[in-house]
Amino acid sequence: MRILTLREQVAQMVMPRINGQQLGDPVYWHEIEALVRQGLGGFILFGGTIEDTPRRLATLQDLAKVPLFIASDVERGLGQQLEGGTHFPSQRAVASAINRRSRKDQALLDTMLDAVRSESRAAGIHIVFSPVVDVNNNPDNPIICTRAFGDEPETVEWFGARYIRGLQKESRPGRVALLACAKHFPGHGDTDQDSHTVLPVIHADKHRLNSLELPPFREAVRSGVGTVMVAHLLVPALDPTQPATFSKKIITALLREGMEFGGLIVSDALDMGALATEYPAQEIAVRSVLAGIDILLHPQDARATIDAVVAAVEEGKLTHQRIAESVERIMDAKTRLGLFDKEQQRTKQPDYARHRALAAEIGSRAFRIVKGSGKKLLPIPETAGIACIVLDDDNNRESANAFLRGMQGLFRHVSFLFGTPNDPLPMSLANDSIRASEVTIVVLLSKISASKGRSGISKSVRDMGLDVLKTARAANTQTAVISFDSPYILEQFGNADLTIAAYGRMDGIQSAAAEFLAQSSSC
Predict the structure, then answer these.
(1) Would you say 160 and 109 are in contact if contact means Cβ atoms under 8 Å apart?
(2) Which helix (H) or strand (E) holds 473?
(3) Do 504 and 92 contact (CB within 8 A), yes or no?
(4) Residue 51's pLDDT is what?
């Protein structure tokens, strides 16, 4: 602290984006290198490979006056960001696959978290923005959905705490290899809007917040979580005048003092539409720091953000003490991670093959029957005629390829047809295929992604699916509907004989779903 200038102290609080795929571009590398030489605190990493990206991040670390934080969104494992890393199931899929009353299942979950920790640290990552501890109690939530452990606070509390303890397992007394992050405080679950685009409003009263949204965060703090991410939300019951990101009542009074959280408080991405469409970037930065944010994540312009906060201190809008508090917490966290200890930076090569097998095992246990017992339909005979209708809400005809390969390998007579909003299902062909089959399977895919505006399906895709079920019912054939994304979609297809929620589209889950149809009669 004593050797850092005011500008260097403020720079420690700024964490812009770094694109792993572009680090080999000399122009882009020069830009990143210049930020590091200005004393930037760290980066949030998007993309890259497990071979190239860690090496380039290590070079940046060598250039830094103070070791860099490297953070990343790895809710579903390192493979979510870096090519070659392991893709693990979504949090909702994990919660479905793991019986928390089973010691064997608990051990399986802990092994998964060990894998995520070892891969992340080997890649040069120190903070994982995981777990999501929002309670997804709104079926129309467009951005949380299967990213959450579920829609009951007890489930979210248990899994959230387990993730935190597993990810932050001590490497030696007082040192951890990784910091976890509980997000999105004070709870992004009960909204039908996406903060990437607009500012959602949480209409719950204080009693409801204290009984549903806030308990998982309290449990996360008790579990020693290293960081908490604040969402861009308006929560009138807590502060009716300003978004949570700008609110001292929510950040300082509730989280820092009320919950006695001593770790790092991180903003959600500052370039998200919830704030960026309403406020100038410089104002966003200053008001966030004033409210108690320690790390300004993903600003539109890192240099301009530093300039704005430095100017606010020089003009008396922010105090030197306020900056020092955040920087001390940042230095404490970097020390806890061993970033000042070169020996602790050495990591073992992860066993990626073993981790992929582990991910497949967990994924194979994730899917659940939502409606119907399966006794009449399952197992489907190998010789049965099957009409498989794949409906993708995101115009991707390849999203169910793993499921289709599995079906082709298990059944002799399978016909496939596709429908998307841009390329509607050819109903005449679909009707012929259904009438010639004994079983009709409808596969639903609707990716949960930023700024999409929904995790459900469009009316056109829903109507295609309903038309398929109508034809199948008239032909007196058995029907099953599988959703590989949002489980809430299935409520619109209640007239099917069987509905199955998979909670994720990773290949292991898709392959296991095909095997389940062939080999099992219950799950």
Answers:
(1) no
(2) helix 459-474
(3) yes
(4) 96
In tens, the pLDDT along 230-276 reads 999 999 999 999 999 999 999 999 999 999 999 999 999 999 999 99
pTM higher than 0.90, yes or no? yes
Name the architecture of domain 364-519.
Answer: 3-Layer(aba) Sandwich (3.40)
Within 10 Å of residue 362's Cβ, how many Cβ atoms? 24
- Bond into 131 cis (ω within 30): yes
Residue in the block written with tokens 């051990």 = 107
Two structure tokens written together for 460: 């056109």
Strands 170-172 and 175-176: antiparallel
Tell me 57's DSSP state: H
Kindly tell me the sign of the dihedral angle through the C-alpha atoms of 164, 95, 130, 153: negative
Q: Is the peptide bond before 184 cis (omega within 30 degrees of 0)?
A: yes
Query: What are the structural domain ranges in the chain?
Result: 6-341, 364-519
Q: Which has the minimum average pLDDT: 73-87, 328-342, 362-376, 452-466?
A: 362-376
d(CA 60, CA 66): 11
- Find where tokens 């999105």 sit: 184
Nearest to 383 by CA among 423, 424, 411: 411
CATH superfamily of 6-341: Glycoside hydrolase, family 3, N-terminal domain (3.20.20.300)
With a CB cutoff of 8 Å and minimum separation 6, the contacts of 59 are: none
Residues recorded for the chain: 523
Q: Which amino acid is at 76?
A: R
pLDDT (0 to 100) of residue 1: 64
